[in-house]
Amino acid sequence: MSTINAQTHAQTGQAIGRPTLAPAAALRPPERRNAVTVRAILLGLVLCAVAAVSFAFTDNVIRGSQLAEDHTAVGVIAMFFALVFVGNTAARWFDNRVRSNPLLAGTLLAALSGAGLYVLERLVGGLTTTDPTGATMSAGVVTLLRVVMALAGVLWLVFALLVGSRLIEATWSAGRWLSLSRAEMLTIFAMLLIATALVTSGLAMQLVPALPAYNYYKSPANHWPDTILKFMPAWMAVQDENAYKAFFEGIQQMPTFAEPQANRFGEPFLQSAYETWVYLRQIPWRAWKAPLLGWAAFLVPLYAFMICSMVIIRKQWMDREILVYPLTRLPQEMARVEDESPQKPVLGPLFRNNAMWLGFLLPMIFSSLQAIHAYYMGFPLVKLEWQTFLMSEQVTLWIVPSFVATGFTYLVSTRISFSVWSLSLVGLFLAGWMALRGYKSPENLGSYFGSTGNPLMYHMGTGALLTMAVLGLWSARPHLAGVVRKAFLGDASVDDSAEILSYRLAVILCVVSAAIMLGWLMLVGIQWWVAVFFWTVAMLIFYGLTRIVAEAGIGGVVPPGIAPVFTVSKLGAANLADSSIAGLGLQYPYAGDIRTFVMASAANGLKITQEIEHRRRRLFIALFAAVLVTLAVSVGTIIYISYVYQGTSLELWYFRDSPAIGLNYARDILVRSVSARPGANGLGWVYSLAGVVLMSLLMIAQRRFLRWPIHPIGLAVVGTWVLDRLWFSVFLAWLIKSLVLKYGGPRLYMRTIPFFLGMILGQCVAAGAWVGAGV
User: Which of the listed ranges 17-21, 371-375, 611-615, 685-689 does the model predict with the highest average pLDDT?
Assistant: First the structure.
């Protein structure tokens, strides 16, 4: 029988019970073990910074597995596995030893401290050879430092053995343990989810290369200077010629360093740290001040709005509609403990489940074989990707089994998974049939949009997605009305005590943030009514995608269309000012290649931490601090990498292709005379209205007919390029779950869940481990 204590309605795919903590009487003190603590926030911020640095290096320098490209958060799960399975397991073992023998704990502390002091002492000795200029530290100074450190080591040894053991014993008796509580681990994971939405494709890798690219790639041939850049405010891009050239070509006069002597303890480490410091001083940081502050004036309110909007809608989704949130299931089970008291087993129930480890091994083996082939080309390649061409090569049918996608989809209802894979195939073959019949639109939608190469599917899918978002808000109007009453009238019947922010403050922050964003858009040059339309469409797209992530668990979901292009198409380029078209072309860094974003991460984070009862209001501080720290560290890391390793030699999508897409789209419109520019696309409006009607009918049928087989989410993602590749994994999960429920019932389904959680975990850990091996 599964060790995971849960109950489920297997066919609806609802989450297997709410995690339960030990009775309050068993905890010392309960409010600390089930609370958002300061140390959890601080540790979470440190890990956010580590993620920002490591993921940027992984994508650009190591060129390994992409760890932060979508909401599956592969890299974050790998980091959380190291924190929970390795770090916290060791901490719980240490806590057990403390209770039985605090003097032994003091001895261990002394031994570890002594080892650390020994390492520092050897590093001090290495200082005499690490300065590349040839200057060395005098032997007398080095000797003095060694003596001081030796004396400090002796004093610390005495303190740890005598005083430390008593302090440890008193601390343990008061309930202050070294190991992290479940609430603390979940708080850290929620913060890391915010980080993974910002470090690469979510923002930093889209924005930072674009700021110098606008001027670096401009030329008379691409017409950027006379169509786009003349409308762009100077503070939106790096203007210093030396700064933007060095970003892509590298700093020309970089210092040279002697090779470190590996036989000298610590010298490679110290020299690497010294080189990094020298490189940092060579970067022209002043040239980045204006564009970074200018964009921060928009992005900080944007992310505040996203977090606050999820605070407002949380109760509607979790308590009234009871959405599944499949992507949160694995971290919740990883952090589960049978009893918060550390004298209990050091491993949680998930890590003691044999089925989980069996599922873990499957992707670990396949991923390891592929990684070995990448390092040793003579090793045979194990291929897990096939494609075939159908309908006179108008349709490319991908067969791509994904352990992560299959595992997460196994947690959702079979009705949703059936709708996703079946409607994805319908959309794929419909696009092929339309191509064969010559049904197409000559409309230019730029180089990137979610629907694969078919403007008509683009309009229909976007209309369906926006309709799903609007009708979802309409169905939540009783809850939203209560939020408004609480915010402005102080209605005592509306309870917001379980929220991480009061409804009043959340509403005020949403209104203020929206006003700042609209003002910023108009400052860029976009007409006010165009700015309102664009902003509304963009927020509805984010909201609709967040709903899909929360209900269907599609971590790599992308929208059929994006807000800048949709705005120009629906309003008509002929009706817009040149500055509006240019301004919309500059919004691609956050509204273009949407694969991960803060709103969905905040929604999952609130679900993960819903059981935390004490000091919940600290969660907002934790999440918003994660935004600020991750933005600062990720932007700084990417700037550093580009100047040192040359931007032109890094990931081409981010450093060459992505910055040009929005500008090229706007340029293709602006080079034409006003009379030659298209008006509002009538055929596009027709297909969008078709998407509106189809989505409305599906949502009505879902509410009216209990056994209606098609879920509306399937229509919202139809034709997108990600589902064209993931449909087989969704189909596989649907097929297995259907057979399990048919022949084994809910009991067998519950027992198989750890196996699929293990598949997800194994794929994530394998990716992280082999990236580490690449370092």
Answer: 685-689
Q: How wide is the angle at C-alpha 485 spanned by C-alphas 484 and 487, nearest 5°?
A: 60
Name the least confident of 192-196, 272-276, 639-643, 744-748.
272-276
Rounded Cα distance, 464 and 555, in Å: 19
Q: What residue type is 199 in one-letter code?
A: V
Cis bond before residue 255 (omega within 30° of 0) = no
SS3 477: helix
Whether 301 and 512 have beta carbons less than 8 Å apart is answered as yes
Find the range with the poorest average confidence among 63-72, 425-434, 695-704. Answer: 63-72
CA distances from 155 to 101, 160, 179 (A): 22, 9, 27
- Packing angle, helices 74-81 and 38-57, rounded to 10: 130
Nearest to 643 by CA among 655, 633, 653, 630: 655
Question: Do 525 and 583 form a contact (C-beta atoms < 8 A)?
Answer: yes
Distance, in Å, from the CA atom of 553 to the CA atom of 326, rounded to the nearest integer, reads 5
CA–CA distances in Å: residue 703 to residues 393, 475, 661, 729: 39, 11, 41, 28
* Pair 75, 767: CB distance under 8 Å: yes
Distance CA 629, CA 201 (A): 17
- Given a contact cutoff of 8 angstroms between Cβ atoms, the answer to whether 713 and 416 are in contact is yes
Residue 10 belongs to what H/E stretch?
Answer: none
How many other C-beta atoms can be found within 10 angstroms of the C-beta atom of residue 386? 11
Other C-beta atoms within 10 Å of 534: how many?
25
Helix axes 477-489, 455-475, angle to 10 degrees: 60
Question: Is 709:418 a contact under the CB 8 Å cutoff?
Answer: yes
Q: Which two tokens stand for residue 57?
A: 């290096």
Two tokens, residue 51: 């993620």
For position 569, what pLDDT does the model report? 92
**pLDDT (mean) for 722-729:** 89
Verify cis geometry, omega within 30 degrees of 0, for the bond prior to 754. Answer: no
Residue 605 pLDDT greater than 60, yes or no? yes
Q: Is the pLDDT reported for residue 195 higher than 90?
A: yes
Is the Cβ–Cβ distance between 613 and 35 less than 8 Å?
yes
Residue 772 has pLDDT above 90, yes or no: no
Task: Say how many C-beta atoms besides its own lie within 10 A of residue 148's C-beta.
Answer: 12
Q: How far is CA 526 from the centre of its chain?
A: 29
Question: Do 8 and 322 touch, CB atoms closer than 8 A?
Answer: no
Tokens of 382: 């194990």
Specify the residue for token string 């996703």: 420
Q: How many CA atoms does the CB half-sphere of 518 hold within 13 Å?
A: 18
Backbone phi, then psi, for 639, in 5-degree steps? -60, -45
pTM for this one? 0.87
Q: What is the pLDDT of residue 258?
A: 53
Q: What does the pLDDT read at residue 131? A: 44
Q: Which residues make beta-bridge pairs with 398?
A: 387
